[in-house]
UniProtKB/TrEMBL annotation:
Membrane topology: Multi-pass membrane protein
PROSITE patterns named among the record's database cross-references: ABC_TM1 (PS50928)
Broad class of where this protein is predominantly found: membrane
Entry keyword set: Cell membrane, Membrane, Transmembrane, Transmembrane helix, Transport
Span of domain ABC transmembrane type-1: 75-292
Localisation: Cell membrane
Chain segments annotated as transmembrane: 20-41, 74-97, 109-133, 162-184, 214-234, 271-295
Name of the protein in its database record: Sugar ABC transporter permease
Domain of life: Bacteria
Organism: Nocardiopsis endophytica
Coiled coil: none
Family, as annotated: Belongs to the binding-protein-dependent transport system permease family.
């Protein structure tokens, strides 16, 4: 009896962790791994919306992708918006978090306000930013006119549309990243700042020599998550595209890769080609994530 009790206790000790994590892996397998593998299978076939599987195509969809100007244009747009949006976003989030980590009046109210853009509905965001970036009656163009600057066709140019979409992205996600950085700053020992202040270090020097090094793992996390999110960018440019055809402007000047996937699969009904684009995007994200991790390891190991 005692032996059975010991075996039961040992099984409970060794098996309980697997039972606790099993729900996640079951859900991931059903809603994550299976769709991923099924998309790979679809990408190897001629697969249409009406006819379904129309035969094995091998790597034809991938060969078509390599010579498709629309794909390369969408990839350039995605990387361009990523560069314009993410770098200022994370820098501003760090500065905001550092400010809210100090003893200022009403900081609890400001901390609560940071999450408002994140929970705001997409419909409300579309209405507000359509008004702000309107070509003829947009508020931003009216403000530019007061200082003698000609109105900007925000949807007509590549860089102007990138800038407008970057503003939408940053408005929505700066607060989210700020709260992540703020939570990490709460774990930094206050003794470090007090000792640095006694040594005569300014707040700027404390920020660069204490805060940034202590937040390096958190910064790496936000960089990787932002990279994954921005490479799958869809909502903001889709909202910005008033035509609704996922064209990304008249010349595709702000069409992202995910908009192209949606257009090919759901507008043109070419699921095989859309799946191939999705899989190429997946591997691009994997490579960018590995580069980020490698750079972080290099910086961490630097003297």
């Amino acid at each position: 009896m005692r032996r059975l009790t010991r075996l039961g206790a040992a099984a409970d000790t060794k098996g309980a962790p697997y039972l606790f994590i099993a729900p996640f892996f079951l859900l991931f397998g059903v809603f994550g791994l299976f769709p991923l593998l099924y998309t790979a299978w679809v990408s190897l076939h001629d697969w249409s919306l009406i006819g379904g599987n129309e035969g094995f195509a091998g790597l034809d969809n991938y060969a078509r992708l390599l010579s498709d100007e629309k794909f390369w244009n969408a990839l350039v747009n995605t990387l361009g918006i990523f560069a314009v949006a993410v770098v200022p976003q994370l820098m501003l989030a760090l500065l905001l978090a550092d400010t809210l980590n100090r003893a200022i009046r009403g900081r609890s109210l400001f901390r609560m306000a940071l999450i408002i853009p994140y929970v705001t509905s997409i419909a409300a965001m579309a209405i507000v930013f359509s008004t702000l970036f309107g070509t003829e009656f947009g508020l931003i163009n009216q403000l530019l006119g007061t200082v003698g600057i000609e109105p900007v066709n925000w949807r007509g140019g590549r860089f102007s549309s990138w800038a407008a979409i970057a503003v939408m992205i940053d408005w929505r996600w700066i607060g989210y990243n700020t709260l992540i950085y703020l939570a990490a700053m709460q774990a930094v020992p206050r003794d470090l700042y007090e000792a640095a202040a006694l040594d005569g270090a300014s707040r700027v020097r404390q920020f660069f020599q204490i805060t940034i090094p202590m937040l390096r793992p958190t910064i790496l996390f936000t960089v990787i998550v932002s990279t994954i999110g921005q490479m799958q960018l869809f909502t903001e440019p889709a909202v910005f595209d008033t035509g609704g055809a996922m064209q990304g402007g008249t010349q595709g000047q702000f069409q992202t890769v995910m908009m192209l996937v949606f257009q090919e699969a759901f507008r043109y009904g070419d699921y095989g080609y859309g799946a191939a684009i999705s899989w190429v995007l997946f591997w691009i994200i994997v490579v960018l994530g590995a580069v980020n991790a490698l750079l972080a390891r290099t910086i961490k190991g630097a003297p």
